[in-house]
């Protein structure tokens, strides 16, 4: 554990939040349960950090999706260490009555050491379509309550374009970023912005479905050049 803390201290400002690497989308999945596996890594200056995650999700109603998952972290190819438990909830406010759909995303994170408090993320998730092309834009506000006073409220964003070419192969583009405090942005050279190509798809397996997505992101994490790979597999039943 001491080694992990020492390595973490070498990575100040690196975007570790999973929503810095995975797009939040909200759909009507009422009655569907899923096993959700996610993984991302980032390479920069000869160092590597990676974070596998595993969770269980369920569509409670046509508007409400909830998921509980655990996260681990690995540094420089070392063993994975459990880092946190997270509870995500996405609630659709609209369902087709407007040219776009609007959802509210929330997530509560509880770190490994419960005495460290918790973190909260909340914000709107927008989605629209033009023909067979889907567009997503999300804006989230994050705050760390690991101290009595709580940390500053920071702002992050997500952008995505996806073309529904085939059910098993849909090319697209993803963009993620963090700008610092929501009302006092960091200087541009200290902000984090990553973008790159992405692919999506799914296959029916009897009455079940396997969905995937993957992206290769290039950009900066807190002023440091970094390259990242992300992937997500969902087994829906």
From TrEMBL:
Keywords: Signal. Residues 1-17 form the signal peptide. This is Uncharacterized protein. The lineage of its organism: Bacteria, Pseudomonadati, Pseudomonadota, Betaproteobacteria, Burkholderiales.
């Amino acid at each position: 554990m001491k080694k992990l803390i020492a390595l973490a201290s070498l990575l100040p400002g690196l975007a570790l939040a999973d929503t810095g690497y995975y797009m939040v989308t909200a759909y009507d999945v009422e009655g569907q349960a899923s096993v959700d596996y996610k993984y991302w890594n980032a390479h920069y200056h000869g160092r590597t950090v990676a974070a596998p995650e595993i969770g269980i999700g369920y569509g409670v109603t046509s508007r409400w999706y909830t998921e509980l998952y655990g996260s681990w972290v690995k540094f420089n190819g070392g063993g994975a260490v459990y880092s946190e438990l997270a509870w995500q909830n996405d609630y659709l406010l609209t369902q087709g009555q407007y040219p776009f759909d609007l959802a509210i995303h929330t997530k509560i994170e509880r770190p490994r050491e419960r005495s460290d408090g918790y973190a909260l993320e909340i914000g709107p998730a927008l989605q629209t379509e033009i023909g067979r092309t889907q567009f997503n834009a999300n804006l989230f506000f994050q705050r760390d309550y690991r101290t009595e006073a709580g940390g500053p409220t920071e702002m992050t964003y997500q952008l995505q374009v996806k073309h529904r070419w085939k059910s098993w192969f849909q090319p697209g583009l993803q963009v993620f970023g963090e700008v610092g405090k929501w009302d006092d942005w960091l200087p541009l050279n200290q902000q984090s912005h990553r973008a790159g190509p992405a692919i999506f798809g799914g296959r029916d397996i009897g009455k079940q479905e396997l969905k995937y997505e993957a992206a290769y992101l290039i950009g900066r994490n807190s002023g440091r050049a970094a390259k990242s790979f992300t992937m997500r597999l969902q087994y829906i039943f």
